[in-house]
Amino acid sequence: MEQKFPLPPFSEETAKQKVQMAEDAWNTKDPEKVSMAYTIDSEWRNRDHFLKGRDKIVAFLTQKWEKELTYTLKKEYWAHTDNRIAVRFEYEYENETGDWYRAYGNEMWEFDVNGLMKKRYASINDIAITKGERKYI
């Protein structure tokens, strides 16, 4: 049985641990590693993409990070309940033509009893920035 500690029900401290763990994993840009935090049949909405399952998550993240270069993500705990966590985030990336962007968003996460994320709903907006406007160098 797969488990990803800390397990729900979450306290503020353990919810913040989950947020930091997610930030650390995503900043590796390793789709396989990131996918292991999700259930086999995890449901995602990422912008206008709807995914179901780890295999789809790996494929999506592989494609994402082929286009979003020099990627740096910061997540911030917003709120939690027993098995849900709300997060705000921003990340910066350079695309393949050298243009820079900052993405802002919110995520709603729902976890199973084993601490794996079974639902992830992300709303994200990008703005173009100059290299000099970067916050995360």
What's the structural blueprint in terms of helices and strands?
Layout: H1 12-26, H2 31-35, E1 38-46, E2 49-52, H3 54-67, E3 69-80, E4 84-94, E5 100-111, E6 117-129
Parallel strand pairs: 1-6
Antiparallel strand pairs: 1-2, 3-4, 4-5, 5-6
Key descriptive features of the protein:
137 residues; alpha+beta; 6 strands; globular
Strands of the biggest beta sheet: in what spatial order?
Answer: 2-1-6-5-4-3
- Which descriptor suits the 3D outline? globular
What class would the helix/strand composition place it in?
Answer: alpha+beta
Low-confidence stretches: none
Distance between the termini: 39 Å
The helicity comes to 10-25%
Mean pLDDT comes to 97
Strand content of the residues, in percent?
Answer: 35-45%
Strand count:
6
What characterizes the major β-sheet?
6 strands, mixed
Order of helices and strands: HHEEHEEEE
Number of helices: 3
Radius of gyration: 15 Å
How would you characterize the overall build of this protein?
- There is one protein chain.
- The protein has 137 residues and is α+β, with helices and mostly antiparallel strands.
- Helix content is 25%, strand content 45%.
- It has helices at 12-26, 31-35, 54-67, and strands spanning 38-46, 49-52, 69-80, 84-94, 100-111, 117-129.
- β3 and β4 (84-94) form a beta hairpin.
- The termini are far apart.
